[in-house]
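TICKET #2291
ISSUE: user wants both folds in one file
ATTACHMENT 1:
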Amino acid sequence: MYWFLVIIVFLLAGVKSQKPKKYQKVSVIIPAFNEEETVAKVIEVVKKVSFVDEIIVVNDGSSDNTEQEALKAGAIVINHETNKGKGQALYTGYKEVECDIIVFIDADIYNLTSNKVEAMIKPILDGKTDITKTKFARASGRVTELTAKPLLNFFFPEISFEQPLSGQFAARKEVLKRIDFEKDYGVDVGIVIDADVLGISIMEVDIGAIEHDMSPLSELNLMANEVVRTIMNRANKYGRVTMIDDIGYFIRMAILGLLLIILGLFTIFFVKFVPLSVGVIISFIGIVVAIYYIIKVIVKSIIMFRKTPRGNLIKSFVKIHFPMIISVIILLLMISTFIGAAHFEHGVLSIEPNSRNLIIYADDSSRDNSISVRGPYTVDSAIENESNIIRMPADAMLGLGIKENDTIKIDNERYIINQTRDGEHDILRLPINAKHSLGVQDEYIIQNSRLKEIFSGVTITHNFDKDNISVYEKYRISARDKSASNYEILVNNNSIVNSTGIFKFNSSYDVAVGGEYVTTLKFPENQTFEYENNTIEVNFKNTNSTSIKQFITQDKGNFINFDLSDFIE
């Protein structure tokens, strides 16, 4: 019983010690101009929201009964003697109220609900954002689509709200002190831009469908002018015109210089019919142009960054000038490749870039990947006490159709294939005699496409293990791919081997068991034979594939050698 009381005491102490949430006063500002038919309904809806403390209607020089309807509905009314515009009405309300959170709602919404109002305020109360702006279920207005969005995409591409001119929004008053209120229809987009550039958190919330009066064309014309003016003023203020105009030109010229460097290097190393001097001249011109304009970009950017609030400026800068960044990255990758391929010996600098080999299989052969990238491989000496072992990268094994523990015969010397050591992904370690026979030396670079040429003529003994049966397939490496066929070996109706390689039509291929001759196959005839009460079938199949595996014919030894010792026992 005592332990139960102790737990209760601790729980009560924990509850008591919890810090209560700070009270946040919420004020709703409703700008209104001749809205006697709807203003009272909007007020009645807002009054239903429990955490709204006061409702203020700014009567912007109305000539109808807007003021009386607002007072009758229970709102505080602030009057403008003349119509000063929505922005000035919002600013008047903002300056008058003493609160933590301000909500701005239009007075002409017919279907406003308390849920819509709560959706605007709740994210701020919960600490999720500093400003909320609304979007609602209807097509964006003509001013939004024809003026606001195109200009925002050009000067402020990081701003991607669906409805930047929605009209309804809420904010912490402390952050609004950092924002420059426009005195007209530019107020909405001005707040959105200021918040973005200054790094103030802003969230777009969906309040569903709304219904309100459509503005006449004359008013839309005025609205468009004021929205355009606001965006252009902000673009000048925050350096976006400079970014697009002056810096944009410098960046485009810098990109031209970088592309000339890339073009020059490409012609030097990969285009044989272009003289070396032409490639050098192109690269030199590119270097001069790129350095000159990159310096101009840096100097102009420093000046702009010193004058402009940080916020999302860097994000916008990167988004607008992404092509230059990609060009620099491409150039750096090319230069790093050339540096990695550079060798200096006896006063001579040699640069010979070696590319990787992209392989796309379009035949019917079964493979784990239809697309792969392999090589190049660097030759190195064999590890001490491994004079009969070749350590070969996995990609090189795939290229030659071999695997670990296969044997390779080079000039009558046999070597065991082993995997590379950790951290030596593309290192091909060869014993000294193997290097001499293959005509390579240490630090020799072998592109994947040349691997079959280097190993052309060597004999591979490839091992298949399944169900305690070992089958050794023997073939020679061909210097080029040739049309291939598939063969399958079944032992007692169980598939043991399924392989593809080059067969000669009507040629004979010997089969052995334990090294002793058993029978001869004649391609492409399928054959079945018996051995120690086991039925062995060899079936051939034409496939739309190629291979470098030239299977050993009868005059050169056994094509297949079975080891059935474990299976028979």
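ATTACHMENT 2:
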Amino acid sequence: MQTEKPLWIPSQHVIDEAPLTAFMEFCSQRFERKFEDIDEFHSWSVTESGDFWSGVWDFCGVVGSKGEVSLVNDDVMLDARFFPAATLNFAENLLRYSGEGDALVFRGEDKARNRMSWNELHALVSKLQQALKMAGVAQGDRVAAMMPNIPETVAFMLATASIGAVWSSCSPDFGEQGVLDRFGQIEPKLFIACDGYWYNGKLQNVGTKIAAVSATLGAPTIIVPYAGDAAEVVAKVKGSALLEGFIAPYQAKPVEYVQLPFAHPLYVLFSSGTTGVPKCIVHSAGGTLLQHLKEHQLHCSLKKEEKLFYFTTCGWMMWNWLVSGLAVGATLCLFDGSPFYPDGNVLFDYAADERFAVFGTSAKYIDTMRKSGLTPMITHDLSSLRMITSTGSPLSPEGFSFVYEGIKPDIHLASISGGTDIVSCFVLGNPLKPVWRGEIQGPGLGLAMDVWDDDGQPVRLEKGELVCTKAFPSMPIMFWNDADGAKYRAAYFDRFGNVWCHGDFAAWTAHDGLIIYGRSDATLNPGGVRIGTAEIYNQVEQMDEVVEALCIGQDWGDDVRVVLFVRLAPGLNLDEELAMRIRTKIRTGASPRHVPTKIISVSDIPRTKSGKIVELAVREMVHGLIVKNKEALANPEALDLYRNLAELQV
């Protein structure tokens, strides 16, 4: 439902100071075009894509050689090439600043704190670069890290990129098989791991797991001291060395940057792997850099020396998004551990102490804060905070309202959506437009986003497939071990041919914003009518009795019936009265078609390492199918709760 007025309208000061405003004027002069408003500017950015991205390069001051041509073969998405003659180095662009000011600030729950200046970061990257070269790591080699979100992880990535090697990371909470399913495919030249990590106030030992992973990978291993006993871990891991010893022979000197093609591989990211072995998605240095510069500067108005925070692990693409903030000269605020230890104030304590400008988190975190009764608006000084971004799953209308009622009334709230596939966003915030309850503000600049029906026709104000109809720089350059590109084409181009189909069920709104209703492959089809699962969650999770929910479609007879699983607040049972109130809430808030046939109480809901619930895996369990890759889950044991349920046999 839409309210009569926006939750937030940018002030004239915000508009005047926004880098996006300056960029529109820059493009107006450069390309001799007058733009009436941001919508006209967006239209130009997709019809004249080469000019637009060339403008981004120059306005954001990319360090490198751009070449004469910005885009070729743009009529075929898979054949399009941006800046085919350009050369640059990703790390050089992130390390363009120096000095004694903070580049990185870190907190690990209440157990660890650290700060690293730009000069200290340069020095560490220099030593790591020299050590990597001596270890035989060369251009195109892979460096894999199972690391917490600490400063050393950022430095290792930058050193890897500086020499043209390829970085890939996951968080240390992954199980042994989960790590091998990812890194085993890319055969790293070097493996980096920590000696332990903190979660929920407890030390998590990883020595045995690292030893097993290292032995299978067959790669030399560097152990980074953080929370455990590093010497003990080194003793367990054959062929390993401590970070201190790895860099001891080297003195800091200016970092050397090899100049590489725009499309040179930078990162290997992985799909969630909940339906099979994870796909290895390879992203380019140039595409990642340009897209992140655009999102940080133009969509988030990020400026030099501002504090940028995103709650993420190194196994989620938002880590890659976060670290690119260095290219603007922002200070990155890193956090590792539980966002609710020692209590639910921990991240807002951090925000107030460090004076965050941008606070990034997940929709689930905002919903949990809403239900916890915490009100940072009252308890914390958030005067410096000007933007909150939310991703991971659709942010409910109630989540939107809570941000303005419980966190800060004058703030730019941007619900954003994209993913690992593009290491960035398709739809996100816009500092020049109002925020409407429950809506993503609009498509990213330079991205030809639309919503199509099953026949491949554009639709407005009705649900369909989220698509992108023109090439963009942060498309993957390939999948690893996909020589003929068949897996790549099948992932995005099978549905509509020369159009990227992202797999999200979405709709345009009357305000030219978007609503994401969930993943297309998780949509429900009772009576042949497609229903997005987020529509049901938005209703049922408003209820204080329901902590969280998961919804699937169960094949039943010749149709599909809607089954809703709920995790209730402590001490509550699912009786007939509560079940009736849940159904009434869904019927009145959504529609009679959304009302579940079955409502079942469960003690846990399975989710990925990045916190996303796994509807497809639960659906497979309910139908007696084999879930192929439980290692992708943070709590794989929860899947057993959905096996052979008597309630679903009738």
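RESOLUTION: both attachments delivered.
EXTRA DETAIL ON ATTACHMENT 2: The chain has a mean pLDDT of 95.
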